[in-house]
TrEMBL record:
<keyword id="KW-1003">Cell membrane</keyword>
<feature type="transmembrane region" description="Helical">
    <location>
        <begin position="198"/>
        <end position="217"/>
    </location>
</feature>
<feature type="transmembrane region" description="Helical">
    <location>
        <begin position="273"/>
        <end position="294"/>
    </location>
</feature>
<feature type="transmembrane region" description="Helical">
    <location>
        <begin position="98"/>
        <end position="119"/>
    </location>
</feature>
<feature type="transmembrane region" description="Helical">
    <location>
        <begin position="434"/>
        <end position="455"/>
    </location>
</feature>
<keyword id="KW-0808">Transferase</keyword>
<comment type="similarity">
    <text>Belongs to the glycosyltransferase 87 family.</text>
</comment>
<feature type="transmembrane region" description="Helical">
    <location>
        <begin position="386"/>
        <end position="403"/>
    </location>
</feature>
<dbReference type="GO" id="GO:0016758">
    <property type="term" value="F:hexosyltransferase activity"/>
</dbReference>
<feature type="transmembrane region" description="Helical">
    <location>
        <begin position="354"/>
        <end position="374"/>
    </location>
</feature>
<protein>
    <recommendedName>
        <fullName>DUF2029 domain-containing protein</fullName>
    </recommendedName>
</protein>
<feature type="transmembrane region" description="Helical">
    <location>
        <begin position="149"/>
        <end position="177"/>
    </location>
</feature>
<feature type="transmembrane region" description="Helical">
    <location>
        <begin position="461"/>
        <end position="481"/>
    </location>
</feature>
<dbReference type="InterPro" id="IPR018584">
    <property type="entry name" value="GT87"/>
</dbReference>
<dbReference type="Pfam" id="PF09594">
    <property type="entry name" value="GT87"/>
</dbReference>
<keyword id="KW-1133">Transmembrane helix</keyword>
<dbReference type="GO" id="GO:0005886">
    <property type="term" value="C:plasma membrane"/>
</dbReference>
Length: 517
């Protein structure tokens, strides 16, 4: 756009113009600013047609915008990108061939690495533990260390599949399953390359996955993230199917329950969300009965209560620095029962007990904010259910990370699905969390696997890196909560994500779209 675009509505009476309202859009401004105006001060007309209006803005109108502009930062980032990548390369990356070439190269690399380790009879990270569990048919009495029932029961299925040919190729088959799910997720996100507007979002997802490295390829979390992404691409269009997929993911790793909560809060047909969850749960109970494991079905919830404050958790940061500085007898130690590095110090035991109710309270408060934004947004110009689902999912999942006493590095994988799908709808509305998550991924990679040993031995530099990562998570949580507040207070400030029938919108006199890729 080259100039200011405005649309005005006027209220008139015979012989006079009583008042007007103006909607304006500035260049490079991703939202509409609404300015109710006072009665016209002067009016010039020719042959009964208005040719010039002069009017003033009411005294009560704020001179500040609701949105903090990030245009300057992203313009600088775009210039850096342009210096780094020729325009021909950038255009190629936005094609289906470019996307699948990059995607394939990254996944082939991890498959080759997994294959080399498997040929030596090795695994990597948590897959060592998964392999042991599968080798004893998940009999916890035959296991020293963490019990297989720290995970929901459906997590045992991919472990059993990876062990189908024994311990040798376990890691390779595990990575192959994640690669297959990532392929399905990117295919669904881009309609197998046909939706070119979603290709940058798929590239972002691929780069984020690469930066997370083995945290996305050698943990159960790497299986659930693409499943949640697939569910979010379906979203509010089919609440039953979306809930069914998310419920399967929840019975594999708990965190997708946050997305289920967002879905339940946003959609009209909430009964379908519940029915899908009940159906999956019934199937899970049947599976537990067939394994004679019904008493262990909820162990994954019960065993979390005894955990202390994990080293990487956001709320552990004060005790992390107390340990680094040698204050108050704070210290790090390995909890062998759950294979977790924890920090102990004055007040840490009390904080550990408080974290569970704090997490529940934070989740309920965010869900309440989503509900408020939905119903308030209807009165203030239109509630976009797709946008609310995505912003609500990000806020709730980030709450699950920030207010969690565990805080394992692979938890960062949870944050990517909502952002990837959001980018495919409205790139500009989601570029801030996308950029923050790239920073989170880089800092997490430095923490684990690169310098985790130094961190666990009170290295101040790595403690600083972890602290910066945790601060970014807090900023991400605040940003997502603020977006929900904006969607309730003034939905017009955020570009619409969905114009489907499920989106409740008020009549609009004029609409202007400005897409940026």
């Amino acid at each position: 756009m080259s100039g200011r675009v405005c649309v005005w509505w006027a209220k008139s009476a015979p012989g006079e113009l009583q008042g007007a309202a103006l909607i304006c859009k500035q260049p490079r401004t991703p939202f509409l600013a609404f300015y109710p105006l006072q009665p016209v001060n002067s009016l010039e007309s020719t042959a009964g047609h208005v040719t010039r209006l002069t009017f003033s803005r009411p005294a009560h109108a704020s001179t500040k915008d609701w949105i903090i502009s990030t245009d300057t930062f992203f313009a600088a980032l775009a210039r850096f990108r342009d210096r780094l990548l020729p325009s021909r390369t950038q255009n190629w990356l936005k094609t289906s061939r470019g996307l699948w070439t990059v995607f394939g190269a990254i996944h082939v690399l991890f498959l080759v690495l997994a294959g080399l380790l498997s040929l030596r009879g090795e695994a990597f990270s948590d897959t060592f533990i998964y392999r042991i569990w599968a080798s004893v048919d998940f009999n916890e009495s035959l296991v020293t260390g963490p019990s297989p029932w720290v995970y929901p029961i459906l997590a045992l299925i991919p472990m059993a599949i990876a062990y189908i040919f024994g311990s040798g190729p376990f890691l390779f088959i595990w990575v192959l399953m994640i690669a297959a799910l990532n392929t399905l997720a990117v295919g669904k996100l881009t309609r197998w390359g046909k939706n070119t507007e979603a290709i940058p979002a798929a590239l972002w997802w691929t780069v984020f996955t690469a930066l997370m490295a083995w945290l996305g390829f050698a943990r159960v979390d790497g299986l659930t993230a693409p499943v949640v992404l697939i569910a979010l691409t379906i979203g509010v269009a089919n609440p039953f199917l979306t809930s069914f997929i998310l419920s399967i993911a929840t019975w594999t790793k708990v965190w997708p329950a946050a997305v289920v909560l967002a879905l339940f809060t946003v959609v009209k047909k909430r009964v379908q969300v519940v029915l899908a969850g009940v159906l999956v749960t019934a199937l899970v109970v049947g599976m537990a009965l067939s394994m004679n494991a019904l008493p262990k079905l909820l162990n994954f919830l019960l065993e979390q209560g005894d955990r202390g404050m994990q080293l990487e958790a956001t709320f552990t940061t004060p005790w992390l620095w107390m340990s680094v500085l040698g204050l108050g007898d704070a210290h790090m130690y390995m909890n062998q029962d759950i294979n977790s590095m924890q920090v102990d110090g004055p007040g840490s035991a009390t904080m550990s007990v408080l974290m569970q109710p704090l997490l529940i309270a934070a989740a309920l408060l965010v869900a309440g904010l989503v509900f408020w934004a939905l119903h308030t947004g209807k009165r203030n110009g239109g509630a976009d259910r797709t946008a609310l689902l995505l912003f609500g999912s990000l806020a709730l999942v980030t709450a699950f990370v920030v207010f969690n006493k565990v805080g394992s590095p692979q938890f960062m994988v949870w944050l990517a699905p909502a952002v990837a799908v959001g980018l495919s709808y409205q790139w500009k509305a989601w570029r801030v969390p996308a950029t923050m998550l790239i920073g989170v991924a880089v800092l997490t990679f430095l923490v684990y696997p690169l310098f985790y040993d130094a961190l666990s031995h009170n290295n101040p530099l790595m403690a600083g890196v972890l602290t910066l990562r945790n601060l970014l998570l807090i900023v991400l949580f605040v940003w997502s909560v603020r977006q929900l507040f904006l969607m309730g207070r003034n939905p017009g400030l955020i570009p619409r994500h969905d114009l489907a029938p499920d989106a409740v919108s008020a009549p609009v006199a004029a609409r202007s779209t400005n897409k940026e890729h």
